[in-house]
Fold this sequence. Notes:
- The chain is an alpha/beta fold.
- It contains 15 helices and eight strands.
- It has helices spanning 17-30, 46-51, 54-57, 67-70, 74-83, 90-93, 120-126, 129-135, 138-143, 163-171, 183-204, 229-246, 264-269, 276-279, 284-301; strands spanning 4-8, 36-40, 95-96, 111-114, 152-156, 174-179, 215-220, 255-256.
- It has an eight-stranded mixed sheet with strand order 3-4-2-5-1-6-7-8, sandwiched between helices.
- Helix 11 runs parallel beside helix 12 (229-246).
- Residues 17-18, 42, 46, 156 line the site of magnesium ion.
- The site of magnesium ion has 5 residues, from helix 1.
Amino acid sequence: MAAKIIAFINFKGGVGKTSNTVNLGAALALDRHKRVLIVDLDPQCNATFWLLQHEKFDAFTAEARQKTDIEKTTFQVFQDALRGTKLFKIQDAIIRGLPVDDFGLELIPNLHLLPAAVDLFDTEFAVNGTALSRFLPSLRNALEPVQDDYDYIFLDCPPNLYYVAQAGALAAHHIIVPYNPDYLSLSGLKILCRQLHKLDEKLRLQRQKLHRNQVCGVTINRNEKVGDAYGTAISQLHSQVDLLKADGLVHPQCKVFHPIRKCVRLAESTSHHKPVLLHDPKSIGSEDYRTLADEFITHFDATP
Ligand code: ADP
Ligand code: MG
């Protein structure tokens, strides 16, 4: 069966897009034996830096990097679309079995990465009207040859809804919105779902199949039980999602997943270049991501 391509999108930064793709990807690959490809679409390259060791990720940032390194990143997908070249080769670009330990051992063989490069910062500015029709479907086309190799392909989108994120939305079968439980994020959610709905109307013209691509799930990240604020924000989130469903602005089966609690071990796992499940398997972060992985499988098995 072909992979389900799922974009993690929010125009807010710091809400958990990268943490979800890396840790949920790891939980699915490690504990549930799913084959997962993480596609880094953010010029900040957070997923790339998180999963690679220093020596490797320097290749994506250093001035002295090889030209061939950049050709093995998502930057090249879009560059090819803009320039009419065909330098991106997906089978060469995917880094398989991450992370790798100090002895070269692949710690999660089923977890793969298509890295980003900081050069993606310039990509948005290079898109013009004529290139747009080639640009938007370029990611979907680039992923096509490996769709049967994975159960899930996760797109870690930049914190905006510009062209790269739009290409992500067009490539995806489903959208997940990572969310922080606070009042301002709640008002942002409604705006975001409206914008994604408008985008879907626009992108449907580009799709071969006319299926709708709507927000199909919301993850709650960095949940804390301090005072009333978080509990209130979560119950308001459930009500908000019900209203959005009634207005047809999210998928009719859109699910609010069980919250991921705030976890210091998860925050520190980034600097160890490991998903939390490897950094500290007994932490609450690991526990919550295992729960999320189970919920996620059940939800997407039932959502065509
Ligand atoms: P985004 O990709 O949306 O910008 P990140 O996933 O990078 O957001 O998360 C922002 C920051 O919050 C990161 O430093 C990350 O380590 C931290 N973080 C995310 N989830 C948790 C959590 N459950 N507990 C503690 N820190 C978290
Ligand atoms: Mg991120």
